Amino acid sequence: MTIVEVIPSLAKRAGAEVFLINLSKQLNTSEKIVIVSLYGGIDPNIEKDLNSLGIKIFYCNKKVGIDLKCAKIFKKIIHEIKPDVVHMHLNCVITYFLAFGFKKQHFKTFLTVHSLVEKDFKKSERFLIKAYAKKKIIRIVGISHLITNNIKSILKMNDAFTIDNGTYLFSPIQNEPKCDVIKIICVAAFRKEKNQEMLINSFIDLEGKTEKRLLLTFLGDGPLLEENKRKVDELNRNDIVFCGQQNDIYSYLKESHIFCLSSKYEGNPISIIEAMSVGLPIVAPKVGGIPDVVKDNKNGELFIAENKDDLTSKLLDLIINDNKRQDIRKNNINDAKQYSIEICASNYLKLFKENINGKEKI
């Protein structure tokens, strides 16, 4: 089977991009995988990794907005590859429409929705997705049950599949690192919806509430990184550090005690699954697919999104309760196994094959 994985860009290492790379690598063990990036540019480490596995990458050199030339290039690439499956991620549906319209093709087409529909797609994109789904030209996949329910609710449709996000799991650390500092880590791009500013303010509010020494570490880059760094510099805090984009996330996770996201909204973050596989307790908002993965007081603690005081309270509870962190660590090492990329890829492959053979259930 030949599968084409389509994404707007591979120039950055965000959740959907990492997922596509990992899924492509895993599917490549049994199927022929080709990647199409609508825009040009790619992280050189990603390119090297994929090339070493023999996975070809094509670029359509898309411009911002409606780009008929890009759609023409995309159509030509697909026709030359002659795939059995075209699997899209994020905002590719308008380019697909410009290339193929509503005409059914010889291949089966799928779109994975990685976050809330109303957040990730414009009205025009939502209209096209709904129309394609109704005509059974594109099958829609949500990365968690909550995301799938959101798809059905917003798009007023019943036909949507759920395949839980998956990733390559890290080696578990059975016991947390012994040191005199409780290390909290956040792995996320610095964008408005990730809301790192609230996490910084919450961390500052912890001062005087515990005698334990604390350290907050941020991994990731993005448009709001420098703004957050300036804020911390102005506060003269040496217990908040920014490490930028890192390829070796594991080396940071294994030395940490708590993983935290402060997002306004999410899908089903791979960063949480990776942190759980190491054993880290999770503090995260009750949004998107997070409650599907993080069970309150079993895998970590959930707080009300955009509520700084609730976030501070949940962080403090895990900071002062050493035994609770260790109990959660054991749970997370075990529970993360169901989110392996091997299981995820197997479910996608099953979905692809059943649709090719005229079945539509997974």
3D structure, described in words:
With 362 residues, the protein is of the alpha/beta class. It has 2 domains: 183 residues, 3-Layer(aba) Sandwich (Rossmann fold); 159 residues, Glycogen Phosphorylase B (Rossmann fold), CATH 3.40.50.2000. The protein has 15 helices and 13 strands. The strands form 2 sheets. The chain has a 7-stranded parallel β-sheet, sandwiched between helices. Helix 1 crosses helix 15, helix 3 packs across helix 4 and helix 8 crosses helix 13. The chain starts with a strand and ends in a 6-residue tail after the last helix. The mean pLDDT is 94.
How many E strands? 13
Cross-sheet strand order for the largest sheet: 3-2-1-4-5-6-7
Order of helices and strands: EHEHEHEHEHHEHEEHEHEHEHEHEHHH
Work out the oligomeric state of the chains in this entry: single chain
What is the CATH-assigned architecture of the largest domain?
3-Layer(aba) Sandwich
Strand content: 15-25%
Largest sheet: 7 strands, parallel
**Overall SS class:** alpha/beta
Estimate the mean pLDDT confidence.
94
The CATH topology assignment of the largest domain is: Rossmann fold
Unreliable stretches (pLDDT < 50, length at least 5) are none
Inertia-based shape: elongated
Helix content: 40-55%
* Distinct helical segment count: 15
Under CATH, the homologous superfamily of the largest domain reads Glycogen Phosphorylase B
Return the domain count: 2
